[in-house]
Amino acid sequence: MTDRDLDRYLAVSPEVVPSSGFTANVMEAVRREAATPPIPFPWKRTIPGLAAAALLLVCFALAALQAPATASAPIPRALSVVLDTGRALGAGWIALALLISLVTVKFAKRLATA
Amino acid sequence: MTVADVDADRAAVEQVLNGEIGAFEPIVKRWQGPLVNLAYRFCHDRSRAEEMAQEAFLRAYRALGQWRRDAAFSTWLFALATNLYRSELRRNPAPAVALDHIAEPRDSRAEDGGLEERDQAAAVRQMVDRMPAKYREALMLYYFHEMDIEAAARSLGVSEGTVKARLSRGREMLRRKFAVHLVACKTQEGDV
């Protein structure tokens, strides 16, 4: 089978004529959409979360500023605390496990769709 | 698509953005045929194609403000619709018809090895439906846009080189599958 044969077979597709009420249905949906007021952004729910995040950020910045960096410890103390906690919890291993899972899923998906 | 169509689309979009909802109607009338036909190529179901096209128009209406005037309105509309149809089909795939259900050759003495032209075309279209999405979509859009690689690439949101590569690989897969299908048909004929 040549490319020309393929072009001949695939270029032809049954022509579908939209039903007579199609435009009216679309316009009705559009008018309904226009009449519906947009859903307001849920500020009431968002503001507490944003405030908490901002407060946390400020606390972290203050802690970093109050702990002066010494020559022997070039990174701020607050940051080193975070790193130590991460190390204690095995964050590196968790990150590695997540990475391996991600690679495995991607690879399996690629194999399935190839 | 004529220059007048391009100008009419642009003017209608401006009117809609200024609050004249009725100005969207000429856009729907102008593009309903192509959008429904494109949807039909994806799902092979007339009523579902209309539903998908209606949703595409609705999304286009919502996103009209995001159309950048550097490309034709139709290009933007096709890309939006293609995106929607692809995700819709991924969520709810069109039922695949087994190759066994394709019509048997009517005349086994035909010169082309047993299959008549119409059956061959039907078999090839069924094979396209069963291909991996990226090759199927490239083939579908290439032929929908009357073999225009640039238009197919714009609709898919990928480079022309990617479309060319997918077309080439897709055609190769079709040729291989078709050869297997022909052998299977001949074997069946031999058994009968």
Topology:
The complex is a heterodimer of chains A (114) and B (192).
Chain A: H1 3-11, H2 22-35, H3 43-66, H4 77-89, H5 91-113
Chain B: H1 3-17, H2 24-43, H3 46-62, H4 73-91, H5 117-129, H6 133-144, H7 149-156, H8 160-191
Helix pairs in contact in B: 1-2, 2-3, 2-4, 3-4, 4-7, 5-8, 6-7, 6-8, 7-8
| Total number of helices of chain A | 5
In DSSP terms (H or I, runs of 4 or more residues), the helix count of chain B works out at 8
Q: Largest interface, and how many residues on either side? A: A-B, 29 and 39 residues
Spans where pLDDT lies below 50 across 5 or more residues of chain B = 100-114
Order of helices and strands of chain B: HHHHHHHH
| End-to-end Cα distance of chain A | 23 Å
Q: What value does the average pLDDT of chain A take?
A: 83
Number of strands of chain B: 0
Shape, principal axes of CA atoms of chain B: elongated
- How is the biggest beta sheet of chain B arranged? none
Remind me, CATH topology of the largest domain in chain B? Arc Repressor Mutant, subunit A
Assign the structural class of chain A, choosing from mainly alpha, mainly beta, alpha/beta, alpha+beta, or little secondary structure. mainly alpha
CATH top-level class of the largest domain in chain B: Mainly Alpha
The biggest sheet of chain A, with number of strands, parallel, antiparallel or mixed sense and barrel status, is: none
Q: Class by helix and strand content of chain B?
A: mainly alpha
Number of domains of chain B: 2
Please give the oligomerization state of what you see. heterodimer
Strand content of chain B: under 5%
- The helix content of chain B is over 70%
